[in-house]
Amino acid sequence: MSDPVMAADGHAYERSAIERWLATKSTSPLTGEELGNTGLFPSHILRRQIREWQGAQRRRANKNYVK
């Protein structure tokens, strides 16, 4: 996930995937329930956590490669 957004159902999605979904539906992909609105909001905290995890994975891979 590189561009996480929050939808009205309270779940995080990759922006491009949920935009494709919402282009033809107005329901939650996870619950199937109608969404009160189809607005999407950036999830800055989740994006930061993903980048931190990716950095840790790269450091781990580099550390293992050097051995």
Give a structural overview.
This protein has 67 residues and is of the alpha+beta class. It has a single domain (4-66), classed as 2-Layer Sandwich (Herpes Virus-1). Helices cover 46% and strands 12% of the residues. The protein has helices at 15-22, 44-66, and strands spanning 4-6, 12-14, 41-42. A three-stranded antiparallel beta sheet has the order 2-1-3. A hairpin with a 5-residue loop joins strand 1 and strand 2. The chain is elongated, with a radius of gyration of 16 Å.
Task: Output mean pLDDT.
Answer: 94
Can you tell me the CATH class?
Answer: Alpha Beta
Terminus-to-terminus distance: 30 Å
The biggest beta sheet, please? Answer: 3 strands, antiparallel
- Tell me the radius of gyration: 16 Å
Element-level helix/strand string:
EEHEH
> Approximately how much helix is present in the residues?
40-55%
Query: Any idea what the CATH architecture is?
Result: 2-Layer Sandwich
Strand order, largest beta sheet: 2-1-3
SSE blueprint and pairings:
Layout: E1 4-6, E2 12-14, H1 15-22, E3 41-42, H2 44-66
Antiparallel strand pairs: 1-2, 1-3
Domain U-box: 1-60
Protein name: U-box domain-containing protein
GO biological process, one term: protein ubiquitination
Q: What are the salient characteristics of this protein?
A:
67 residues, alpha+beta, Herpes Virus-1, three-stranded antiparallel sheet, 2 helices
Brief overview, please?
It holds the Pfam family U-box. With 67 residues, the chain is an alpha+beta fold. The protein has 2 helices and 3 strands.
